[in-house]
Structures are given as C-alpha cells and as structure tokens.
C-alpha cells in the first residue's frame, strides 16, 4: 500500500508546493510510482507539473463533492511514474460546501483508498489554511511533512499547526505521524538563516530532515515552464537537494 504524505503548513509561501512537486518528481525519478494530489484551489502543483488547467474536465473538487472516482481525474505528467490529481479554481467553493456534507473530514481518505495500492507514494499539496481541505489531507495521511521557511517568523503559527495535528490524531487519524520538518529557502549568506536552523532543531530535534533546501533561482523558475526541477535543471543545487530529501523520505519507509 502506498504511503500517503501531506505537505502542510497553514502559513503561506513557505515552500509547500515547491516541495510537493519536486519531492514527488524525485521519488518518481528514483523509480517509485507516485501520485501527486493537488488539494489547493490555487492549483499551483498542477501547473507546476505542466497541467493546463483549462483542459481539466474533472478535478479533486469533483472527487470531494460529487463522489467522482479519483481514477477518473488522474492525469499523466512529463515525468515517468508521476501522476497527478489536479485542482482548479472550482475547489475554492469546496471548503464551504464540505461543511454540510456527511463524513466531511474523511472524504479524501475514502477516495484515495481506491488507488492507494497502485502507488508507492501519494503526496498531497495542502492549501495555506487549517480548514477542511487540510483536515481531509491530515485524515487521509500516514505522515505529514512540515516545510518551514528559514526566516524570522519561521516558528510563528507552528503551535497552531501542532495542536491541529494532535486533534486529528485524537479524533480522526490515530496513526498520523510527523515524518519530518523541512527547512526551506535557506540562504547561507545570512546569520538569520543559521539562527533559524538552530531554533527549529532545538524545538523539533531529530524530526528535522538533514536535507536543507537552499534558496535557488532555478527552483523558482521551473514552475513557469511546467517542469519539476529534476527535468528543468537536473544539475542545479535545488535538484540535488530535493533528490537527497527523496532518499531520506524513502529511508523513513
Ligand atoms: N528553495 C527555493 N528557492 C527559491 N524560491 C523558492 C524556493 N522554494 C519556494 N520558492 C518560491 O517561493 C514562492 C512560494 O513557494 P511555494 O509556492 O512553494 O509556497 P507554498 O507554501 O506552496 O505557498 P502557498 O501557501 O501560497 O500555497 C514561490 O514563488 C516559489 O517559486
Ligand atoms: Mg502552495
């Protein structure tokens, strides 16, 4: 059965999508069968792997709200072994529509059960909120990866995320684990970045991945070409480190 990993942090712009897209692509590059699930109405992960949203007939919205089979939404990507369930802006209404739906927190979990055996990893790119889309993701997941940007307010908001994780563990998903905390957009030229690393390590200890994602221009350019870094610029530092991260994630089993 595939391992389901949610990439979540309610804070915006910390590198969730960059990590979802590039970790997925690197896992696929290493020979794993990977399904990337875009559950953010912004649909950035979808465009990041080259999906033209105008061409998408059915997306994760239809799965969550209209009981469409997830199999009917899966698209192939340029990367061998990497498939995606795309999101479009229609998903923006789901957060509110889900409120009055039966078993509203477990809809994604149920939907993914149908395809879990077909993949080694299912990676979910969460939106920047702790609403029902993120709750569905944490309920479906075996583990969570928390990207933390190496900047001054890095730890702010994390206590809220951790208490949400505890609530999900208590009521919806006993076995949800933190796979790791991922430091992103690290700039070795600043003392601040180094301080943040120390602070995050003090707090999360061995839960912090050894791979630290550097600030890398190629990583920020790749999405506009609809390509993960491993295709856009496989020799870049960004590609190297996401590949290291993928190996760490595989080792965690
Ligand atoms: N390591 C990096 N080096 C350079 N730029 C990066 C890096 N990681 C992310 N970025 C850029 O920072 C911005 C935010 O990253 P990203 O979209 O991955 O964050 P996010 O957490 O998914 O945001 P949101 O909360 O809006 O979903 C993007 O423009 C992205 O290209
Ligand atoms: Mg995002």
From TrEMBL:
Residues 3-178 form the AAA domain. SUPFAM superfamilies: P-loop containing nucleoside triphosphate hydrolases. It comes from the Bacteria. Signal peptide: none annotated. CDD domains: ParAB_family. InterPro entries: AAA_dom, DNA_Partitioning_ATPase, P-loop_NTPase. It holds the Pfam family AAA_31. PANTHER family: P-LOOP CONTAINING NUCLEOSIDE TRIPHOSPHATE HYDROLASE, PARA FAMILY PROTEIN CT_582. This is ParA family protein.
């Amino acid at each position: 059965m595939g391992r389901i990993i949610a990439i979540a942090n309610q804070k915006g712009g910390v590198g969730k999508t960059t990590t979802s897209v590039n970790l997925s692509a690197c896992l696929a590059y290493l020979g794993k069968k990977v399904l990337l699930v875009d559950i953010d109405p912004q649909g950035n992960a979808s465009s990041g792997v080259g999906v033209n949203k105008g061409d998408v007939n059915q997306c994760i919205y239809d799965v969550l709200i209209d009981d469409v089979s997830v199999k009917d939404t899966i698209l192939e990507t340029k990367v061998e072994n990497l498939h995606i369930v795309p999101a479009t802006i229609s998903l923006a209404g789901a957060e509110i529509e889900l409120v009055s739906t039966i078993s509203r927190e477990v809809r994604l979990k149920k939907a993914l059960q149908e395809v879990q055996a077909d993949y080694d990893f299912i990676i979910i790119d969460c939106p920047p909120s702790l609403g029902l889309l993120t709750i569905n993701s944490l309920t479906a997941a075996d583990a969570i990866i928390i990207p933390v940007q190496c900047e001054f307010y890095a730890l702010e908001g994390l206590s809220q995320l951790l208490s949400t994780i505890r609530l999900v563990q208590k009521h919806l998903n006993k076995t949800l684990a933190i796979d790791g905390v991922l430091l992103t957009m690290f700039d070795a030229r600043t003392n601040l970045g180094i301080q943040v690393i120390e602070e995050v390590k003090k707090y999360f200890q061995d839960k912090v991945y050894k791979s630290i994602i550097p600030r890398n221009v190629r990583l920020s350019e790749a999405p506009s070409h609809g390509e993960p870094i491993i295709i856009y610029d496989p020799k870049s530092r960004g590609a190297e480190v996401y590949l290291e991260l993928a190996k760490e994630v595989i080792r965690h089993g």
